[in-house]
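Is FE2/S2 (inorganic) cluster placement plausible here? Inputs below.
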Amino acid sequence: MDQLTESMITIFLNDQPFQAVAGASESLLDFLRHRALATEVKCGCGRGDCGTCAVLFDGRMVKSCLVLAAQANGKRVYTIRGLGRDALMANLQDSFIQHGAIQCGFCTPGMLMAAYNLLRIKPTPTRSEIRQGIAGNLCRCTGYQKIIDAIAAVAGKTAFVSEAADSLDSPNPTATDQEKAKAGYLLLGGG
Ligand code: FES
Ligand code: FES
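Reply from A.M.:
I modeled the complex. Tokens:
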């Protein structure tokens, strides 16, 4: 390993420790897609414009193309896959389908993350607040109206009770997480 340009980092990806080498300038997006094979995180623009790469990190939604992988060392990262059993996310997914808010689907993982993040912080947003909440996410297909309808239909209806949700308020892994890593649960990624 080139000590000047690469380092070994561990992230807690969807509550599982994952360790792999990361380049000094490698984005969290590239680390997730190419090292952790978390291809549910999409790469649209790679420069912070489109929102397809959204993940929950350090207790908030971020565009993973704008975060260095090294910044995530020792931190929790949730992708949409990690929220698969979360009631709020499940309701959002159903509502997107029911309202025709998915066409090509490329923006959908990021859009759902933005909607989830919004409702986590503000469970009963106005339509204007929903618009603001997804303002960093681009969709070239739907015209946004159906997406806003889908989010509005879920707003205020779902108790926010999942473990992942609780973990978002404590972005650093717990002692149990650290013990799992030490006990050999590391999922080693490719170099
Ligand atoms: S790929 Fe990150 S904002 Fe577009
Ligand atoms: S559904 Fe195609 S980009 Fe949004």
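Short version: The first helix runs from residue 28 to 35.
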